[in-house]
Amino acid sequence: MDFEELNTFLEVVRTQSLVSAARHLHVTPSTVTARISTLEEKLGQKLLHRRKSGAALTSAGFKFQRYAELMTQVWRQARYEIALPPGVEGVCNAGLEFDLWQNVGSRFLDHVRTHAPRIATALWPGEQRQLQRWLDMGLIDIAFCYVPHAGEEYTSRLLLEDELILVSAGVDQSAALDAAYTYVDHGDQFRRQHAEAFPDARPAQVTIAASDWALDYLLRADAKGYLPSRIAAPQIASGCLHRVQGAPSFLRQVYLVERARATQSWTWYEAAVAASGLR
Predict the structure, then answer these.
(1) Are residues 139 and 266 in the same domain?
(2) What range defines the domain where residue 122 resides?
(3) What is the pTM of this model?
(4) Do residues 53 and 168 both lie within one domain?
(5) Distance, CA of 245 to CA of 123 (rounded, Å)
(6) Which of these, 48, 114, 240, 264, is most buried using a 10 Å CB contact count?
(7) 179 and 236 share a domain?
(8) Mean pLDDT of each 10-residue bin along the chain, 279 residues long
C-alpha cells in the first residue's frame, strides 16, 4: 500500500473536498483523483462519493478509514524509530489515559530524561480502547491505564490505587450532593462505588469526564466534586480547594501494561518505574 495514497485519502476525508486536499498537499487535483482511483482499484471498492459539493465516504470508505489511520501511524512511527538522532539508543513509546499524566506519566518521563538521556520517549494520550488497540498494533510498548490488558504478550501490574476524594472550591463544604455538586465521571468502578455510597442521589446538573477539566470548572464555579487526591493536593495546599470532611472516598486501580518483548531488554526501565514513585 502506498503511503501517499493513504495520506491523500485521509486528507480528502478531513477536508471533504478533493480540491482542498490537493491544496493542502501541494499537488494538483488530478493527482489527488489519480491517487484515490488507484487506491480504490487496489481495494476493489469505491471509497468516496464524488459530488460537486465535495466528497463523502462510502460505507467501504468508512470502514477503511480506521485502517488507513493505523497504517499511517505505523509508518510514521517506523520512520521516527529508524531515523533516530545521533546518540539515541532506543525509543520508548508509552500510552496513558488522560487523567494519568500528573504525578504518573510526568514522573516516569522526568526520570527517563534524567537517568536515561539516550532513550527517546514518546507519550500518547488516549482512552482505554485506544490504548488496547495501540498495544495490539505495536504502536506503544507500555500503557498507564485503569484496566489490565489480557494476552500472552502482555504483563499487567498494579501500580497504585488512586484515591478519589470530594473537594469543594466554595463556601459549601457539606457532603450533600446538592446543586453545587458536579459529577466527575471516573469510570465503571467509580460509578458502582458512587451509586452504593449515594443510593438516593439525583442526577447532577453538570457531568465532566476529565479530572483536569473538572478541576478548572470547580475553581471557576465554586463547585464541588470528586477528584484524584494527587491532582487536588496542590490546590488543597494553596487553600483554593478544601477536602469535604465526612464524605466517603473511593479507590481506582492504576495499572502498567507492558509488551514483554519490548521492555525485557530495557536496562533502565525498572529503575524508572521504581524511582518515579509508581510502586
Answers:
(1) yes
(2) 90-160+254-275
(3) 0.69
(4) no
(5) 37
(6) 48
(7) yes
(8) 85 91 91 92 92 86 90 78 74 93 93 93 91 88 91 87 95 89 94 94 93 96 96 96 96 92 90 72
155 and 270 together in one domain: yes
DSSP state of 139: S
Mode of pairing for the β-strands spanning 183-184 and 250-259: unpaired
Return the bridge partners of 143, or none. Answer: 95, 257
pLDDT score for 83: 67
| Nearest partner of 209 among 264, 271, 128, judged by Cα | 128
Q: How do 90-96 and 119-125 pair as beta strands?
A: parallel
Q: Does residue 173 contact residue 245 with C-beta atoms inside 8 Å?
A: yes
Q: H-type helices in 55-142, by residue range?
A: 59-82, 106-115, 128-137
Distance CA 47, CA 157 (A): 42
Q: How far is CA 222 from CA 135, 169, 182, 193, 240, in A?
A: 40, 5, 10, 25, 10
Q: How far apart are CA 244 and CA 221, in angstroms?
A: 16
Q: Which three cell numbers stand for residue 271?
A: 529503575
| In contact, 121 and 94? CB cutoff 8 Å | yes
